[in-house]
Amino acid sequence: MTEKFKILAKYIKDMSSETPDIETFLFVKDHISKYQLNIDITSKALKNKLIEVNTTLKFEDKENNDKKSYYEIIYATVIKVDDDVKEKKDFEKIILCDVPTKIYPDLETSFHNLIHNSGHPTIKLEKKIDFNKLYNERSN
């Protein structure tokens, strides 16, 4: 299938790693396996079929602990959508599925670097994110 968009730019828009003190760092080091990865995708129309797609990954503790670290990265992608794309559903699939699938390897590498450079070199994202599956579940 031919892509109906072209990536014009991609970059880290925002990156955050917050660990308030050494006690929190040591606590998190022992409990980071309980942290959950959340993903959010937003978009903003620019002009002339240009769209900014922001893919956000958050890695955080959902438990009610006083000692927590917080990790987040927002990866921006600016795309130009082909002129023959007219249907809202086609735009949604490009924004929520096609673009994130295409940029995910770079986003994952950047996110791993953030976590590793925050003092957790053994952490890996175990599951690859299947944007097609997420998109299809959302559509049903």
Description:
It is a single chain. The chain is built from three helices and four strands, in the order E-H-E-E-E-H-H. With 140 residues, it is α+β, with helices and mostly antiparallel strands. The chain has one domain: Bacterial Protein-export protein SecB. The chain has a four-stranded antiparallel beta sheet. Helix 2 packs across helix 3. The model has no long low-confidence stretch (mean pLDDT 91).
Q: Per the principal axes of the C-alpha atoms, what is the gross shape? A: elongated
Low-confidence stretches: none
What is the name of the CATH superfamily?
SecB-like
Strand content: 25-35%
- The overall pLDDT average reads 91
- Strand arrangement, largest sheet? 1-4-3-2
The helix-and-strand class reads alpha+beta
- What about the largest sheet? 4 strands, antiparallel
Helix content: 25-40%
Distance between the termini: 22 Å
Q: Class in CATH?
A: Alpha Beta
Radius of gyration: 17 Å
Kindly state the number of beta strands: 4
Briefly summarize what is shown:
The chain has 140 residues and is of the alpha+beta class. It contains 3 helices and 4 strands; from the N terminus they run E-H-E-E-E-H-H.
Keywords:
four-stranded antiparallel beta sheet; Bacterial Protein-export protein SecB; elongated; 140 residues; alpha+beta
What topology emerges from the helices and strands here?
Elements lengths: L4 E14 L3 H10 L4 E10 L4 E11 L9 E12 L6 H30 L13 H9 L1
Antiparallel strand pairs: 1-4, 2-3, 3-4
Helix pairs in contact: 2-3
